[in-house]
Amino acid sequence: MAESIVIREGSWAELGETAGEIRRVVFIEEQQVPLEEEWDGRDGDCRHFLAMHGETALGTARLLPDGHIGRVAVLREARGLGIGVALMQAAIASARRLGHAQVELAAQTHALSFYENLGFTAFGEVFMDAGIPHRNMRLSLHV
Length: 143
What we know:
alpha+beta; four-stranded antiparallel β-sheet; three-stranded antiparallel β-sheet; 7 strands; 30% helix
């Protein structure tokens, strides 16, 4: 399926309704993240990414102006199909185009190996965010 996935990039105004629904399902319903923590008021400043299979959106991510990637979410029925990798590659490419020297993210600890496989390195201690253990990770964009 990964070869039939198209990544759309745009603003919150363009992609937010669909991206927000995916995040609601994954973070608020599945992971029990409190509403006020999920909706942090920063979406309008971010680049957003949607993984599309035909007309169906299966995943989302965002790139903050400071080079942080976050809110990476793939619907349960689409996990394990390469969609998260495609979203991350799109966000990293966008950060590179925008001139960022590196990208960072706060990974849920169960996903550390996913990000390590993309070249990210963990740093700092494990911390709790929305009741879920996380660890900061960084990827240098210098070639």
